[in-house]
Amino acid sequence: MRLTILTLFLLATGGAACAAPLLITTEHSPPSSMRDADGVIIGRATDKVREIMARSGTDYRIDQLPWKRAYMTAQTQEQTCVYSTSRTPEREPLFKWVGPTDEAEWQFWGRADHSFPLNTIDDARKLRIGTAIGDARDDYLRSRGFNVDAVSNDLINPQKLLLNRIDLWAVAVRNGGTGPGPYDWSDKVVPLMVFHRVKVYLACNLAVPNDLIDMLNAALADMRRDGTLAKIDRKYEHWGKSP
């Protein structure tokens, strides 16, 4: 039987690099991470993370939390990681990184009947932009002087758009995805422009051993080579679309 590079790596390092199980946190963000009818956390990013853990022989559990709590838990609690985390220069020294697991566009969404021009990101400077507390898009826009209005649950923002309490919503759309949906506002709140592109990762606490990070990255590289990542992406590519 042909040994994969990951298998050789595991043999060389003696298996799992850390005895303590990893706590992996995430948010409710369909189709990336969500619960099925039985309460099990599934989704495109979740399936990738579970496969990484299986291939590397890593014990773990996944908890679904509000994003800010999920993110801060991974930043402050040893043996903890969080997905899907945009890797930005500001966040670079805060974590050890496994990935990328995906890519994303940051888009401005607005009402379908909006009346203002939006051709460049600077056109948004005079507008009210809905974001989520602790999100990378909030940090990005806030640090550049945009007028942001952050909420604890990102899915409050489309309702605020419909009530004219904000003008734009900063949304992350994964590579090949269609954005949030389906919801009753799906035809009323639409994408208007892309303002940034990022790669997303499993971000791990700085105390997670380097050997384990190397194993997880080796598992992911193996998945990319053998087509598993593409297979998982295809599984969810029609999620939320009308038949």
TrEMBL record:
The keyword Signal applies. Gene3D superfamilies: Periplasmic binding protein-like II. The keyword Signal applies. It holds the Pfam family SBP_bac_3. Keywords: Signal. Residues 25-236 form the Solute-binding protein family 3/N-terminal domain. PROSITE patterns: PROKAR_LIPOPROTEIN (PS51257). Residues 1-19 form the signal peptide. Transmembrane segments: none annotated. PANTHER family: PERIPLASMIC SUBSTRATE BINDING PROTEIN FAMILY 3, SOLUTE-BINDING PROTEIN FAMILY 3_N-TERMINAL DOMAIN-CONTAINING PROTEIN. This is Transporter substrate-binding domain-containing protein. It comes from Duganella alba.
